[in-house]
From TrEMBL:
Keywords: Glycosidase, Hydrolase, Signal. Coiled coil: none annotated. It is an enzyme of class 3 (hydrolase). It comes from the Eukaryota. Its EC number is 3.2.1.78. The lineage of its organism: Eukaryota, Metazoa, Ecdysozoa, Arthropoda, Crustacea. The gene is MAN5A. This is Endo-beta-1,4-mannanase. GO terms for molecular function: mannan endo-1,4-beta-mannosidase activity. Residues 1-19 form the signal peptide.
Length: 380
């Protein structure tokens, strides 16, 4: 009898190690062994770059963000994408020479993030934390991380690893996203003998709009090293990246190349574990028309990817007049593993109102078909 009790306890122990976490298998996402579909919104920010760390969360954003999580949950949403350092103006903590000394200067960053995760779990919502923003980047200390290996390593050692170590097993932590739209900061139309670093396929696609001219090899190393830092700290943690369009994440379409394959990331940075677990594309219509290869015009399988694919940003106001409910449903029924509307603070260009986004999430609320379960308990 004692042996049976011991075996039972052992099985419960091993089950607890694998429970309460978002995982991948092939092109699907799972939570606690159940196939799931991530339906939700980009919160992005309440206070741009100042939501977490240095006492900002409790002072500026906690009540607003919690009210948004509640509203998203009530609408049937199960996941949110929210930005952390953004450009690096508030966090992490940099010294006078541009080296990172900690997640923030006053020591509230990790507790702020944990508070957000705790509340998200209470609402059965998974959180994707986005570290950096490549779509608009003006802080020189952050730009230097792409060029100086020592400074990049200081961020990994003194900020990223402590955050992952403290929070990596939280049941509401869906994934770490290294960067939003790095292609904005890219040196575009730059030939290279290595196809992974050759950006001539992106000529005339619009990449490189910030005029920072960072070579693709530098961007891929930036991603590879940080992904390796996450994985080295918590081997079960998921890592993703939010690409600005399909052009940079597939080899099957015109004017496109998948720069974020395992082989390209390792070729750039040399870190064998520095890989993505799932892909993420953003998509907006131009002059009311989708491009022919945009996610809402094709199935997920048409991109030829071997990992899950989430439509990480879109808005019905920058679509083809399909309506938000049809866009959410399209993602669910056409092989994608998630859809996140832009953006819940309802500010800026191509941003739907909260009511519109709630309507989209309500379209998928309770669905549990071939696309996966939309609503599921977050926890052990």
């Amino acid at each position: 009898m004692k042996m049976f009790k011991f075996v039972g306890l052992l099985l419960c122990f091993w089950a607890s190690l694998s429970a309460g976490r978002l995982t991948t298998s092939g092109t699907n996402l799972y939570y606690n062994g159940q196939k799931v579909f991530l339906s939700g919104a980009n919160i992005a920010w309440n206070s741009y770059g100042y939501d977490f760390g240095n006492g900002q969360y409790a002072a500026n954003s906690k009540s607003t963000l919690e009210s948004w999580l509640t509203q998203i949950a009530n609408s049937g949403g199960n996941s949110v994408r929210i930005w952390l350092h953004v450009e690096g103006a508030n966090t992490p903590a940099f010294d006078g020479n541009g080296y990172v000394t900690g997640p923030d200067s006053t020591g509230t960053m990790i507790s702020d993030m944990r508070s957000f995760l705790d509340f998200a779990q209470s609402k059965n919502i998974l959180v994707i934390f986005v570290l950096w923003n490549g779509a608009y980047l003006t802080v020189q200390n952050t730009i230097n991380l792409f060029w100086d290996d020592g400074k990049l390593q200081s961020y990994i050692d003194n900020a990223l690893k402590p955050m992952v170590s403290a929070l990596g097993d939280h049941p509401a932590l869906g994934a770490w996203e290294i960067m939003n739209e790095p292609e904005g900061s890219l040196l575009n139309n730059q030939a290279d003998a290595n196809a992974c670093f050759d950006t001539t396929p992106l000529k005339d696609t619009g990449a490189g709009w910030t005029n920072l001219y960072i070579p693709m090899q530098n961007i891929l190393k930036f991603v590879n090293w940080q992904a390796d830092g996450v994985k080295g700290t918590n081997g079960a943690a998921l890592v993703t990246l939010g690409s600005w369009s399909e052009h940079a994440q597939t080899d099957t379409k015109a004017q496109s190349r998948n720069y974020y394959t395992d082989s390209c990331l390792v070729a750039a940075g040399g870190k064998a574990n520095g890989k993505l677990d799932f892909y993420q594309m953003h998509t907006y219509a131009f002059n009311g028309q989708w491009g022919p290869d945009a996610p809402f015009k094709v199935s997920s399988s048409s991109y030829g990817l071997n990992k899950p694919l989430v439509i990480g940003e879109f808005a019905s106001v920058c679509a083809q007049n399909e309506g938000i409910q049809n866009l959410f449903q399209y993602g669910y029924t056409n092989g994608y593993q998630g859809v996140w509307s832009w953006q819940y603070n309802a500010g800026g260009e191509c941003s739907d109102t909260q009511a519109t986004q709630d309507s989209g999430m309500n379209q998928l609320k309770g669905q549990n078909g071939a696309g996966g379960a939309v609503n599921f308990p977050v926890g052990f």
